[in-house]
Write a structure and sequence with these properties.
Blueprint: E1 2-6, H1 15-29, E2 34-38, H2 44-50, E3 59-63, E4 77-81, H3 88-95, E5 100-105, H4 109-123, H5 126-129, E6 134-142, H6 147-158, E7 163-168, H7 172-179, H8 188-206
Parallel strand pairs: 1-4, 1-5, 2-3, 2-4, 5-6, 6-7
Helix pairs in contact: 1-2
Length: 216
């Protein structure tokens, strides 16, 4: 069983958007049995699942902030939507669950400064330092060819972890959130740009580079 966590202590960086789209990718594209564990009391991923139409591949949801986070037998992939403001022992406990961690970062000075502190703390976590959990960053809600985007790109490339891809700021993610689906489940003609941006991330996740050394 593979466990992928979307984590950043900074709120509002799009963790739920990435988590739900990852869940739909594995369920729809990879045809795997997917569990979406929502550790965030705001319940954004849980609400997304409630809106999911029955005709789409089933994704099992767990309200992990109030019930045990135990994936049922036969689960192939667990996607964890982590809460903001997670520090100390709570962060350590979450990191222990993950094989792979994806960190979304927004193009703003505040978010970049917060990300720098967070990544520093994360690299000190035992599983991460021993390479038992692999981490990478994604630039999220980006408008390309802006000064702040170039600052973000330079910042992310300066981190000592993989910078995988850039996801644009688009209404497509709002549309998928409302309908309980992911961009892979929309008409390709309307999301082709987004699918191109997701390809480096899904390719990385399919590679051994995203897996803990023990699972390679």
């Amino acid at each position: 069983m593979r466990t992928i966590m979307v984590l950043n202590t900074k709120g509002g960086c799009g963790k739920s958007t990435i988590a739900t789209n990852l869940a739909s990718y594995y369920a729809y594209e990879e045809e795997q049995n997917v569990v979406l564990e929502d550790f965030d009391p705001q319940g954004s991923s849980t609400e997304w699942l409630k809106a999911r139409p029955e005709e789409y591949p089933e994704i099992t949801g767990i309200r992990a902030w109030e019930e045990p986070a135990r994936a049922p037998k036969g689960t192939d992939v667990v996607i964890i939507d982590a809460p903001a403001a997670t520090y100390g022992k709570d962060m350590t406990s979450l990191v222990r669950r993950a094989d792979t961690i994806i960190i979304p970062v927004l193009p703003s000075p505040i978010d970049m400064r917060a990300a720098a502190r967070f990544v520093h703390d994360l690299l000190l976590q035992g599983k991460v330092s021993r390479k038992q959990t692999k981490i990478a960053v994604v630039a999220n809600r980006v408008r390309e060819n802006t000064l702040v985007f170039h600052s973000l790109e330079k910042f992310l490339k300066s981190l000592k972890i993989p910078f995988i891809t850039t996801l644009r700021d688009t209404q497509n993610y709002i549309r998928t959130a409302e309908r309980g689906i992911g961009i892979y489940e929309m008409a390709p003609s309307s999301v082709y740009q987004d699918l191109e941006q997701w390809e480096p991330l899904t390719k990385w996740l399919r590679s051994k580079r995203s897996l803990p050394d023990a699972k390679k």
